[in-house]
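2.7 Reproducibility. Because tokenized structures are sensitive to small changes in the input, we list the exact sequence used for Sulfotransferase, including any N-terminal residues retained from the expression construct. No trimming or masking was applied before prediction.
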Amino acid sequence: MSSNLLPVSPMATETVRDSTVPNHDETELTEFQKNQKRYQDLISTLPHVKGWRPKSPLIWYGGHWWIQSFLEGSLYAQEFFQARPNDFLICSYPKTGSTWLKSLTFTIAHRSRFNDLASTIPQTLSSNVTLTSLFLSLSSH
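Resulting structure tokens (single pass, no recycling of outputs):
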């Protein structure tokens, strides 16, 4: 064997580790953080007033008063949500009751299957819940 051979560098034989290559989740997180920063910069330019919660001022945007975390989420949804023709979106705040929301979702999804929907809804639901109209309005004006 020849002694002219250079020693092999440990770096040359080292395998690529997970920490050296950014994974898809890290890239998404970085994009999310960039968007969140952009939304926060926009929100800082909007009118603020003291709200009912000490650390959560109300922010005027699109003709409505918002709490910052809700506004950030709404801006993100407005920018990235792509609805399909058969989609419907039903939202509620956590711990506001999921039973009626599930019933409402079922009713909307299956309303064309029943002639008289009131007769197919359990009496406990139909006698205790009256739904006249429900709207979710997000404006980008």
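Residues 22-81 form one domain.
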